[in-house]
Amino acid sequence: MMKKTIINNATVVNNGESHVGSLLVNGDRIERIVMGGVIEPEGEGYMVVDATGMYLLPGVIDDHVHFREPGMTAKADMHTESMAAAAGGVTSVLDMPNVVPQTTTVANWCERMEIAKGRMHVNYAFFLGATNDNLDEIMAMPSEEYPGVKLFMGSSTGNMLVDRREMLEGLFAKSPKLIMSHCEDTARINANMKRAQELYGDDPDVTHHAEIRDAEACWQSSALAAELAKASGARLHIAHISTERELDLLGGNVTGEACVAHLLYTDEDYARLRGRIKCNPSIKSASDRKALRQALTDGRITCIGTDHAPHLLSEKQGGARTAVSGMPMVQFSLVSMLEMVDEGVLGIERLVQLMCHNPADIFGIKERGYIQEGMKADLVLVSREEVAHTITSKDVLSKCGWSPREGDAMHWKVRSTWVNGNLVWDGHSVDTNVCGEALCFVK
């Protein structure tokens, strides 16, 4: 592996600004940044990249992925999904606890960390999941080693529903870490499903998914979570906000994540893409999508994740009851958002704020998320191509082998991805000899 890399004449996007400049990576660190000039190699052993006309961004930090290992490796695993992440310019991922066995004890968390060593091609961390009776385990976790506590305030994949009021109040009162919540009201969803089955049959068509997991179910659960956070002072991060109304809950110690799928699609897309875009919470109306897109730039949404959740395509068949929820998105999240930059939804500087800076700040990730001298060299080089590339299944590196973005034309391309100074993606293939590191946290 090259020990020193020079990237010359890139448009460096960082801290709300874009300037043409050059950068020297020495080992795993950014050693030198020069704005408006080039850096010449001082001897041999340098990789020199001419990045004229390209954009250099901090590596994307995806705060919400499901890499499915252990327990569900037929559809995804740490090796394949981290390859997809690297190809998409994602250099760090925060993985969720609803695997088999669930990551709800310190022992199970330690086992996942061991599995990840030498198999993850990007940097990684694992949430500890809350249950109705594991507050002692949460209190025992070393706070500098994990990003936060994942709370399912609504049943979803893995059946990790926390529904006891005393546990919720205790968690918000005592959690030493940020709480990241999946908010949907299960009782309302169950009632909606029963009503839909009476109208449409045992397995209502997938086009009814947004009626069953509706906006009110999200609002009721998110409002309760925000109430608990504001009463206790706990830091709450509401995952995958999907409705306009939930945006009113954000501010102070309550932050919110938007996921790429909810920014891309509306409920009108179910007819075309069917179960491929079935996820929890559901993709909702065009007005909800419009509000979410506006919230990217008005400060209410603080970060963009993917909720990358691969399933076999065979599992995505069926209706609102039987088709499983979740989709792979980590490989195409950055280019999808760059296409939205072209559409005028947000600026590229704001994109970097939402996908790189803010996740590092919200979760307290050490030494990552910015292009600064002395920081870890997690970097991605992207370019806008004149001729668009149409995504096919052959492009997909996720183990499940499909993407809802198949058939879509993209002008943006991830040219190179560096993880800790090592080139892991060269625009064509992943160097599987490159492995990421366990992330460290300051709070």
Task: Explain this structure.
The chain is built from 12 helices and 17 strands. It is α/β, with parallel strands linked by helices and 443 residues long.
Corresponding CATH superfamily of the largest domain: Metal-dependent hydrolases
- Return the CATH class of the largest domain: Alpha Beta
- Tell me the series of helices and strands, N- to C-terminal: EEEEEEHEHEEHEHEHHHEEHHHEHHEEE
Give the amount of beta strand, in percent. Answer: 15-25%
- Poorly predicted runs of 5 or more residues: none
User: Which radius of gyration do the C-alpha atoms yield?
Assistant: 21 Å
From the N-terminal CA to the C-terminal CA, the straight-line distance is 33 Å
Largest sheet: 8 strands, mixed
Number of strands: 17
Estimate percent helicity: 25-40%
Instruction: Give me the number of helical elements.
Output: 12
CATH architecture of the largest domain, please?
Alpha-Beta Barrel
Q: How many domain modules?
A: 2
Q: What is the residue-averaged pLDDT?
A: 96
Q: Tell me the overall shape.
A: globular
Give a short synopsis of this structure.
The chain has 443 residues and is α/β, with parallel strands linked by helices. The protein has two domains: 4-57 and 371-399 and 408-425, Urease, subunit C, domain 1; 59-363, TIM Barrel, CATH 3.20.20.140. The protein has helices at 78-87, 106-116, 135-140, 165-174, 186-200, 209-212, 215-232, 260-264, 270-273, 286-295, 333-343, 348-363; strands at 4-14, 17-26, 29-35, 46-50, 55-58, 60-65, 90-95, 123-126, 128-129, 149-153, 179-183, 236-238, 254-259, 303-305, 379-390, 409-419, 422-425.
